[in-house]
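fyi for ur records
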Amino acid sequence: MSNERPTAEELRQGITVEIVQGDQDVQSEDREPIVGEVATIYEDDPHGPEVELKNGTVGHVKSVVHDE
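which gave:
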């Protein structure tokens, strides 16, 4: 997993990402990441692209989760 945040243009519906919700500290390493499939891509933001996951959770993409 890379530390490079993707842009909204690089995201696609159905890919798996790790997100941070707005009330969490994006820089904090001790937060439990939320991982899920992208349902809706909103827009780029300084904290990372904002997306809604298929489970309804909205947050900023921290990274793309690649199949290993």
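The CA atoms of residues 7 and 64 lie 10 Å apart. thats all i got for now
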